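Structure representation:
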Amino acid sequence: MRDAPTAKGRATRARIVEGAAGVLREQGVTFTTLDDIRARTGTSKSQLFHYFPEGKDELLLAVAQFEADRVLADQQPHLGCLDSWESWRKWRDVVVERYERQGDQCPLGSLFLQVGRSRTGARAIVAELMRQWQAQLADGMRALQAGGLVSPALDVERASAALLAGIQGGVSIMMSTGDSTHLRAALDDCIERLRASAGDRDRT
């Protein structure tokens, strides 16, 4: 990713990325041209290539990072304060609503299909998204432990990894079938397992 050295430059680059994200969501990656993005963002060709010298692929990677950040931002404030069962319920509802609203169109997935998931930059974006997401889930589980709501023996890293895998699997099935049943089941089952672990503590 290229850095814009001044505050004005950073603001211009951010405006281009956000505008491009809007066009790509509306038209899809395949049917969006740089001219479409220039028209939406009010930038010249020279300005666009100033911030993205490698052209469309570099811009798509920047939009992919923007979309990855949105995945986590859309789950706030609940994802950042999972310290009660009520906060977990609200977070669960937000996740389901987000992906039901998204439907079978995944902007992030479409972008990676276009730029190539094997590209170093694309893989780094996915890896960092999953790392941050799992870390916040793990923090929430530790908050439950601190409040005595789950067993202190719970393997937080394993449980948070399983929950994230369940979400991703449920989303993949929903995108194929249009049915969010599996996503809901994955979330509900993982949360119920967390609640049940409090009983495991009492038996040890």
In short: Residues 7-53 form a domain with the Arc Repressor Mutant, subunit A fold (CATH 1.10.10). DSSP finds nine helices and no strands in the chain.
